[in-house]
Amino acid sequence: MKQMIEVNQIQIAVLEAIEKGDSYSRVCKRLGWVDERGKADTSRLQRSIGLRTISGGYFGHRMESRTAVQIIRAIGRDPVEFGL
Description:
Layout: E1 4-6, H1 8-19, H2 24-31, H3 42-48, E2 53-54, E3 58-59, E4 62-64, H4 65-74
Antiparallel strand pairs: 1-4, 2-3
């Protein structure tokens, strides 16, 4: 069974990274979330952390812990800081 966690802390961490000069595009490229042309899938990242609506028009509030760990590492943070 997949372990699910709340997105709040991950969302805040990503927004802090963006505020400090990182970008959604660079984070996506570190995650390997790019299309066949190499363009970063920024909407996927924003949906994952609850900043954009997902299917059905609602915002996601939970994510797989494995995805959270990948995102945290992509912004240069340690998953242990988040209890993962």
